[in-house]
What we know:
Layout: E1 9-12, E2 27-31, H1 34-38, H2 41-51, E3 55-59, H3 68-81, E4 85-90, H4 92-106, E5 128-133, E6 145-150, E7 155-160, E8 168-171, H5 181-200, H6 206-228, H7 233-251, H8 257-269, H9 273-288, H10 296-302, H11 310-327, H12 341-356, H13 359-363, H14 370-382
Parallel strand pairs: 1-8, 2-3, 2-4, 4-5, 5-8
Antiparallel strand pairs: 6-7
Amino acid sequence: MWEFASPKSMVFGEGALEYLREIEGKKALIITDKVIRGLGFAEMVASYLKEAGLVVEIFDEVEAEPSKETVVKCAECASFFEPDWIVGLGGGSCIDAAKASWALYERPDIQIDEISPLLKLGLRKKARLIAIPTTSGTGSEATWAIVITDTRERRKMELASKELVADIVILDPQLPLTMPKRLVADTGVDALVNALEAYLSQWRNHFSDILAINALQAIFKYLPRSYIDGQDKEAKENMHYAATMAGLAFSNSQICVAHAMGHALGALFKIPHGRSVAAVLIFAVEYMAKEVMERFSALADAVGIKAETDEEAFKKFVQALKRLLEYVDEPASIKELGISWENFQGEIDNLVERAIGSTGTIASPRVPTVEDYRKLFVYAFEGKDVDF
Length: 388
């Protein structure tokens, strides 16, 4: 038996932020970062909420890779302020931090690493959640997953609970218009990997497949345009929706090997998430393909590639992935991230240990062993075609 979890309400289109004027409540805590606040988005959201009659506080200390310490500090802020709405505003980091802080605000008796699908959190006794993405990548606004960094252990914690799905998601395509070119590429590739792994996951299903394929189709079409022209409103809007579709897809099917490797790489070498998954993507896909070769004909067809066999579709699709990564200036190997062989070798055991414990390993259509991961990381560093 399967369950498809999704936000209760999704408001989208130009001017969607104005929906906040209709929110009923007493207090709202906006959780964001200093960049988003500097752009004026936090104050804009606050003004709409104030028009609705709410008292508003802003917590703007979320880092690019949110830490346990920041989440705890934010939860303490919430406990003091006592909001009945938590508003995650920003990229995936801000929204993940909002979800995690909300859980600790509602449940001060638990530690952050206790959050799991097996623990009944009993949320919504104190507050509900609004997620407002300003980037087009992680899909966190639509998922029940959280990724928080344990800075002491240099590890990314993959946490999840279906209770963490947002009550309201607001997708206003005006927000991502401000993204710098590098962020467009990094977040866009994150959405690409989310959609692709959702489609390949062994936990895939009818609903996740449709969302994943449509997201991939849109990303291949609109990411290059969004990257080249920061004011291409059609491309920006379609990428914004594609990222959310990809989030819905993988949230209800799961991530795979590229995320397992990317999370390990990002935590140990402090690499932005989109770039870390980009660097290992081709090698992860080549490794998993043996168990899901029949899936590549549909993938190829979705992005306009003609092929006579599944094997031909796979080869052509991988080449298309490589071209897309190159077009948006994303790394195609770990070496291209600027990591030296000596530093890489010094962390290889840690990389493998973290990857093997990832949810992405469990859900992968081909489950890597410790030795498989060791070889995959080396191949990904060298840019070598996977032949095992």
